[in-house]
Specification:
The complex is a heterodimer. Chain A is mostly beta strands. Chain A is built from no helices and eleven strands. In chain A, strands 2, 4, 5, 9, 10 and 11 form a six-stranded mixed sheet that branches. In chain A, strand 9 and strand 10 form a beta hairpin. Chain A starts with a strand and ends with a strand. By secondary structure, chain B is mainly β. Chain B is 0% helix and 56% strand. The relative contact order of chain B is 0.32. The chains are: A mainly beta, B mainly beta.
Chain lengths: 112, 114
């Protein structure tokens, strides 16, 4: 069964304290892995798509990496405005299955 | 470019009633997906529509249904509402990007069943 697990569930960082969020996945075949940011009561905001092991994508203070079993979202020198829930999702390589399987997210709080 | 829009923002219904939620995709996107995000749970896939047809559905009962119109907008209907249907309902639209379908989400409709 396809599964996505994110850790930790919650993370509190001081402003400027870098860290990483983990997303491990077990799928029959990976078409793509996605990272989203979600603010309370709002829809997820698209951040990155990763296709294959070894790939890296960067955007401002965020960098996403992918291996054959997991993905990491590295946050460098975070600011309070980076506080949000970060969601990982996978799209499996299966005909007729374009939907995303989501993890339960990591709730990040950055303290000034 | 306008993003995915959803209406209404909030909806309050009584158990047993029916709810109708609406979604307009990003211009040029032909696929629409519906997800449920209940409190404390992750996003759960409900339905996928493409070119007016239902292509796939998640593990939800038949009282969750919908349709896609010729302009690619979509409607989600929930019949015989139950208390546990209270959740944020999210719509996403997509377009093929290489081998994957990147999905862009709307702001959601908060459904409260009392």
């Amino acid at each position: 069964e396809d599964q996505v697990t994110q850790s930790p569930e919650a993370l509190r960082l001081q402003e400027g304290e870098s860290s990483s969020l983990n997303c491990s996945y077990t799928v029959s075949g990976l078409r793509g892995l996605f990272w989203y940011r979600q603010d309370p009561g709002k829809g997820p905001e698209f951040l990155f798509t990763l296709y294959s092991a070894g790939e890296e994508k960067e955007k401002e203070r965020l960098k996403a990496t992918l291996t054959k079993k997991e993905s990491f979202l590295h946050i460098t020198a975070p600011k309070p405005e980076d506080s949000a829930t970060y969601l990982c999702a996978v799209q499996v390589d299966q005909t007729g299955a374009n939907n995303l399987f989501f993890g339960t997210g990591t709730r990040l709080t950055v303290i000034p | 470019e306008a993003g995915v829009t959803q209406s209404p923002t909030h909806l309050i219904k009584t158990r047993g009633q029916q709810a109708t939620l609406r979604c307009s995709p990003i211009s040029g996107h032909t696929s629409v997906y519906w997800y449920q995000q209940a409190l404390g749970l992750g996003l759960q896939f409900l339905l996928w529509y493409d070119e007016g047809e239902e292509r796939n559905r998640g593990n939800f009962p038949p009282r969750f249904s919908g349709r896609q119109f010729p302009n690619y907008s979509s409607e989600l209907n929930v019949n015989a509402l139950e208390l546990e249907d209270s959740a944020l309902y999210l719509c996403a639209s997509s377009i093929p990007t290489g081998l994957v379908y990147e999905q862009y989400f709307g702001p959601g409709t908060r459904l409260t069943v009392t």
